Amino acid sequence: MMQNSIHLLRSRRFLPLFATQFLGAFNDSLYKQAVVLFVTYQLYSDAAREAQFSAIAQALFILPFFILSAISGQLADITDKARVIRWVKTAEIGIMAVGAAGLMLQNVTLMLAAVLGMGVHSTFFGPIKYALLPQHLQPDEVLGGTGLVEAGTYLAILGGTVVAGFISGDPRAVGVAVLALATLGWFSGRQVPPAPPASESREKLDWHLLRASARLVRATMHVRRLFLAILSISFFWTIGAVIIIVFPPLVKNVLGANEAVASMFIAIFSIGIAVGSVAINRLLKSQVSARFAPASVLAMAVFVLLLRYVALSWDKHGVTELTTLGGFLHHPLAALMILALLGVAIAGGMFVVPLYAFLTTTVEKTETARVVAANNIVNSGAMVIGAVLAYALTALGIAATGQLVLIAAMCVVSAGLAWKLHRACDQDRKP
Question: What percent of the chain has pLDDT over 70?
Fold first, then answer.
């Protein structure tokens, strides 16, 4: 229940990890959104180039998950996770220094290098974030803790997005902000309690990236329930990747609105995910189950199609200048657009949170980080494919509204996989 989860925020078993994750997600969101808005509204003035830059930035951020997750999962299982957190948060300060320089010099290469670096940072932090939960929390606290982490993550994305909308035109302010957040994350990371390996055996790291990745995925995906959960999560994050890519050009070129409205779209999406993350814990009463997942993602598809309908019906009234946030909110279809965005996000949060909790509670604690890493490999591969697909569709002249149809179709595929997962779990529980 929600009250059972909130008490975790007062516990050192959970609060430092939550704070470190929150600050990292805030920094990721602030920097990526600031870069995309700066390039979209300040450097480029071509819809195709803007959409393609957004796709490239998304692909670069995700690529390290595909290449390095096998190493990060092994490292998290054989090393004290708190120590790895300290290493990762130290690296974040250096990455953000490069990113700040890129913005101030208006150097796109340095900006994208920092986006790639933050992808590496998140690749090594991700398995630890989820693997620590079953190690530090009681079994009946894991779903609630996972929900709080997801809700906190998306509230952090909300905060970073809102701040980026206000300061993206001032590269110096963005640089100071991201360096300050990285420093705060370094301090909070040092407060995470020790989390030594759950197993006494000291395995050696396999540094062969392709072999380690293939072996890790093979070892996980042969378990039918894990296979279905990972595929379901992968389709969800592919959907999320395409949505994030579509938002800036949709807002600028279809709705004719400025940076503040683009930031508001991401903010609404983040609020919705957070609400869905908490709501599903109440519905499931802290039980880890996929029974609501198929309905949730089908509802997500309906709201995506509603979003497309509203976008196609949007009338800019012949305005040649970009509409401000106030102008957007006064549009007669603004309320319906916001409702559609919230619906997409709330349904998405309700879909994905139980699946992450499922991953971390159905395997031995000695294998948790590697299962999460295997999930990240498959997820990231799917998300890179989604980013490449969005790039290709844009190059072929298919507008953002057309790409929303693809998103709805992927939701239907996710619903089928989630239904199979629910049925497989039911069969396993039968005597």
Answer: 83
